[in-house]
């Protein structure tokens, strides 16, 4: 910077503005402005400074300040950058040159110069193979390169893109091209280019007659298009066999199955089989690439299952014309027969009975077996029960096929019980309670009901002549016993001489406590009768077999089988082996100290 006043007076130069003293300085004498650092145009493209000339003598400005603008010249020192996430999408089977996405990179160098002019290029495609996309060199617009995109084969592509400044060209003077790299993701949108098909070529199902709004069968469709979209969702149509409108098909949106539903009741007597023809399409229209010359058809065979049907009256209302002239009426004569028809055979119903459901003035009677109707009283034209000159009654036809199973809720003693039942129909209506006599009996081992043995209570017991004689003999015997005692020797000597002790140790059945207090509870072993065909064998008794334990005294009982001598020999051995059903056990001599009757024996006794 120079001032014209320097020829007339001594002058000093100075700078005013940002970065003065740091980045910029001026020689006070010569006015030369110097730079003391590296400038970055992308940070500060220009600097606004002022040059000032002052008198050395008094420091006053010798003239106005000089505006000094410093412009930083650009160098190609920045590479292009992709700053946004680049995701595009395009329909499968799109035509060539279809627009996908336009991308752009930013170069921080001076705009509208060669340093910021960018050229784009696709350098890599994932997955590799035919190059499905191309990019416009200058604009960065990506387009479809081939019209064979198929989402079912490849749903996503990734492109590696380069952006190079200097228009992608060669170095200019000292500046060389800079390149930035970015990734573009391209998603392939689905179109309806696949026709749905069923997993089977034909189907069979069955349904009972006289029902509706029930699922009969499911037919699953398979479609390669994007799941849970209208391109994938199947639409089923019945094109044959459903002229009467008995069926409809709805689609399960989760499984893509067609659900065949009964809309109208079927009658087995009308037809026992239905043959349907079904076609399947999609909810959305097909793509232009799909050409269907003849649709695929699928036969469905539905068997109608016959079920027992209630009989019905035909006609449902029967009209009988009768004069009220009593001279023409015979109350014993059948005025009409009204029978029901078997809905399965269309013949007169059998195994049914007829009853009146409604007869407000009790005019009629009906034979429950034949359905013959007679008058019970003479008709009265002026009766208050007539409606527009007509008397109405309702006849019911009841099938005889109701069964019931009774099960006891607790253990019952054998005997006769009265059970009252209420029988209701499906409408909740019932007749008067029915009473049943139920016999509870004891079953034998062969699961046969054992008849109850009744004790006679009609004739009181009587004592005959033989009974009186036995009673007198008993009294005489009691008188004779004291006389026998007079002949016996008494005292210890007599006892030692006449009574011999057992030669072995035994346990008494009565226990001596020597106290007046309550005795102890004693656990008694139950000796039960062995199972049928099982016996108790005592090896000490010469291999013989004996039955008993818990039975009434009699043939084969323990009391009558073993003598005291046999018992003595058994107990001398201390331990006795018994065999029951092939299983042997050792029984000590104390085992038979105390015996009790089994529960089975007691139950049998008290049940009689």
Automatic annotation (TrEMBL):
**Keywords, comma-separated and alphabetical:** Calcium, Cell adhesion, Cell junction, Cell membrane, Glycoprotein, Membrane, Metal-binding, Repeat, Transmembrane, Transmembrane helix
Which Pfam families does the entry link to? Cadherin
* Biological process, per Gene Ontology: anatomical structure morphogenesis; homophilic cell adhesion via plasma membrane adhesion molecules
Cellular component terms per the entry's GO annotation: desmosome; plasma membrane
Q: Which CDD domains has this protein been placed in?
A: Cadherin_repeat
Q: What is this protein called?
A: Desmoglein-2-like
Q: Which GO terms describe its molecular function?
A: calcium ion binding
Native organism taxonomy: Eukaryota, Metazoa, Chordata, Craniata, Vertebrata
Which ranges does the record mark as transmembrane? 463-488
Cadherin domain location, by residue? Answer: 4-82, 89-198, 199-313
First-listed, main subcellular location of the protein, grouped into a coarse class = other
The keyword Repeat belongs to this UniProt entry's keyword annotation: yes
Species this protein is from: Clarias magur
């Amino acid at each position: 910077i120079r001032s014209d006043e320097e020829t007339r007076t001594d002058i000093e130069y100075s700078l005013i503005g940002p970065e003065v003293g740091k980045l910029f300085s001026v020689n006070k004498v010569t006015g030369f402005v110097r730079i003391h650092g590296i400038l970055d145009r992308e940070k500060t493209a220009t600097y606004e400074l002022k040059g000032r000339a002052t008198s050395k003598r008094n420091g006053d400005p010798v003239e106005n300040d000089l505006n000094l603008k410093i412009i930083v010249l650009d160098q190609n020192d920045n590479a292009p950058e992709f700053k946004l996430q680049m995701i595009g999408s395009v329909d499968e089977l799109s035509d060539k040159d279809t627009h996908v996405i336009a991308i752009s990179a930013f170069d921080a160098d001076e705009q509208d110069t060669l340093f910021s002019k960018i050229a784009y290029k696709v350098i890599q495609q994932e997955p590799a193979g035919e190059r499905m996309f191309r990019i416009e060199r200058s604009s960065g617009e990506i387009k479809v390169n081939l019209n064979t995109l198929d989402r079912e084969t490849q749903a996503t592509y990734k492109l590696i893109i380069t952006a190079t400044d200097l228009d992608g060209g060669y170095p200019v003077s000292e500046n060389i091209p800079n390149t930035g790299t970015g990734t573009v993701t391209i998603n392939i949108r689905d179109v309806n280019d696949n026709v749905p098909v069923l997993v089977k070529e034909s189907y069979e199902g069955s349904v009972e007659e006289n029902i509706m709004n029930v699922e009969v069968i499911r037919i699953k469709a398979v479609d390669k298009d994007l799941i849970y979209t209208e391109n994938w969702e199947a639409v089923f149509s019945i094109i044959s066999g459903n002229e009467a409108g008995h069926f409809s098909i709805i689609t399960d949106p989760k499984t893509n199955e067609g659900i065949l539903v009964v809309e109208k009741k079927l009658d087995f007597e009308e037809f026992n089989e239905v043959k349907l023809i079904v076609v399947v399409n999609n909810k959305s229209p097909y793509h232009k690439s799909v050409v269907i010359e003849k649709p695929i058809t699928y036969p469905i065979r539905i068997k109608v299952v016959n079920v027992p049907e209630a009989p019905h009256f035909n006609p449902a209302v029967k009209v009988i014309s009768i004069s009220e002239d009593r001279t023409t009426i015979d109350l014993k004569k059948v005025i009409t027969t009204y029978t029901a028809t078997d809905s399965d055979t269309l013949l007169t119903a059998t195994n049914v009975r007829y009853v009146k459901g409604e007869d407000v003035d009790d005019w009629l009677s009906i034979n429950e077996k034949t359905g013959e109707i007679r008058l019970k009283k003479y008709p009265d034209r002026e009766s208050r029960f007539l409606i527009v000159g007509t008397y109405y009654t309702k006849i019911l036809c009841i099938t005889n096929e109701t069964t019931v199973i009774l099960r006891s809720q607790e253990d019952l003693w054998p005997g006769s019980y009265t059970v009252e039942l209420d029988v209701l129909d499906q409408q909740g209506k019932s007749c008067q309670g029915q009473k049943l006599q139920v016999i509870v009996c004891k079953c034998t081992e062969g699961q046969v009901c054992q008849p109850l043995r009744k004790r006679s209570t009609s004739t009181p017991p009587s004592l005959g002549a033989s009974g009186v004689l036995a009673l007198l003999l008993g009294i005489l015997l009691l008188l004779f016993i004291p006389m026998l005692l007079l002949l016996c020797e008494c005292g210890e000597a007599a006892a030692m001489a006449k009574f011999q002790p057992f030669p072995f140790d035994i346990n008494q059945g009565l226990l001596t406590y020597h106290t007046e207090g309550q005795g102890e509870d004693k656990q008694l072993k139950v000796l039960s009768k062995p199972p049928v065909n099982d016996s108790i064998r005592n090896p000490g008794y010469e291999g013989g077999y004996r039955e008993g334990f818990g039975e009434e005294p009699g043939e084969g009982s323990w009391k009558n089988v073993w003598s005291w001598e046999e018992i003595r020999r058994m107990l001398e051995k201390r331990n006795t082996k018994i065999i029951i059903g092939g299983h042997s056990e050792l029984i000590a001599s104390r085992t038979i100290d105390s015996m009790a009757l089994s529960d089975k024996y007691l139950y049998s006794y008290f049940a009689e």
